[in-house]
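Input:
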Amino acid sequence: MSAVSERRERERAQRHRLIVTAARELAESEGWDAVTTRRLAERVEYSQPVLYSHFAGKEAIVGAVALEGFGELAARLGGARREAPEPGRAALHAVCGAYLDFAEAHPALYQAMFHLPNDLRFASDETPAPMRACFDEFVHCFRPDGRPELFAEVTWSALHGMAVLSDTARVRREEQAERLDLLVARLADAP
Amino acid sequence: MSAVSERRERERAQRHRLIVTAARELAESEGWDAVTTRRLAERVEYSQPVLYSHFAGKEAIVGAVALEGFGELAARLGGARREAPEPGRAALHAVCGAYLDFAEAHPALYQAMFHLPNDLRFASDETPAPMRACFDEFVHCFRPDGRPELFAEVTWSALHGMAVLSDTARVRREEQAERLDLLVARLADAP
DNA sequence: TGGATTGGCTAGCGATGCTAGGAACGATAG
DNA sequence: CTATCGTTCCTAGCATCGCTAGCCAATCCA
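Output:
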């Protein structure tokens, strides 16, 4: 491969990143409704069709943002668990708290990950690594005897429900900490 | 008011119902993406603008379907709880099972209630009665000492998370019963 | 029977996601 | 240095979306 085409590929990768970050910023500042292909193209200072030379469609762009979100979430959860590395109540509380904080701090990102139609596939062999990493953080909060995966699924479900019901004002946000404490108290391995 | 205008008002109310049920049927058979104002108008054999003489917009139509869903869900949860009228584990298991069954049996309806943009407002004074009724069914599964509302919120959150993660294939559906058992075992008042 | 009112329709607006087709650019061979 | 060839990217447009303006006809009251 020539140096020229290497440079071009590098530039292409840069533009790929530019599109993803522009979509994310636009969604975070004005909501996903504002992320139209036209506005996104204007933002990256290219015409509309170049988006389609990088992504199969809008769903793929949302998927790329969502994948970025899963990476950051995995990092946050991992950081929280390193504060309490042993399975048990403290670990679970730290990880669950980090999860809810993330969802509340990055609502647009969270929507891309769970609400919006995107092209990510779950619970299959080709599940992207960052998503598995998120799940594994929950798994490691429970002792390997017992059934850590089952507990992790229930934990994740409950947190997701709390996050989305809180985001859409179906439950009061002020009491989120109490709900978190209750959930952890009931699900965590002792101690 | 004359008999003539009474008849017209009756016919209007009929057409109102017709629109809501047509929207629901279309969503259940082909998904909400297929529910466009044009297809809906064609289905009820009127032109597009008549929809807007009944509803403020598409969100209001979705909201009407969602409200219908909350009514049916409240009935299902109430029926389940009447099988085990005392607060406790049996009541909670029955109600939670009915909730998950409902979400799995009526995915389009469930989407209208929780996923899609609609014009229903929650956690406020004007929360529609069927929605309060759903919540109250969870509350009554817990003893009035303790904190039944808090437990109800966590329960509902967990169920919602399980329903949506299962619907979008983020967790395996086959293990839903195990998750349900675990959730109930951990949250229910003894016995 | 004539004039006002109401109700529904046709037609169209702006915006959406996405695509075809050609223009202009840059790399390479003579 | 020039001519050719690919590639890249833009202009323009399609079908469809939610929604609305404005007219036409049927209906109601005098």
